[in-house]
Fold:
Amino acid sequence: IFNMDETGLFFRALPTRTYVCREEGQRKTVRGTKALRAKDRLTLVLCANATGTCKIDPLLVGSAKNPHCFRDQQSPVPYVNQKNAWVDREIYRGWWNNIFLPAIRKHTKEPVALLMDNCSGHDPSCADPTGQVEIIFFPPNCTSVFQPLDQGIITTLKTLYKREMLSSFAAAYDKFEELQELAKKVWPS
Structure:
């Protein structure tokens, strides 16, 4: 049994809360900057089986045709672009045919049930030509009780992403002078 769900990721937004010791002051939140409210967004399509033994490669849906972060290297996960960075029927069909079905065939020969919400972007006409996979749509306005990926998996993924992002910021801050010297060598004034 597999579950598929999408989630939005504001990949440039910094956390809006932090832990502050009482000795440092009474302030409990971070001072506001535009980086805290960055609206640059990706959609992640996530899919895994009930036991967690098979995690399908996530699909990134962004709005840029050629993102700057992939100019020197290829994306480590599948990436597609769409004007609003949403999953539409065309992107869903591509995920179904090029990512999901090959991963299922590689993982098992047994029958598979794919549980997912009935979002308008999910193409109900997609069917497995071999009959191995059956799609089961959740009822409308289904809560996270029925959506396994919403029961902490997506939240954990986003938390780990924020932690890695903040760790890389802290590492860059520690090497600030070294990075400034390198920048002067590359772009002399």
User: Anything to note?
Assistant: Residues 2-148 form one domain. The chain is about 30% helix and 20% strand. The mean pLDDT is 83.
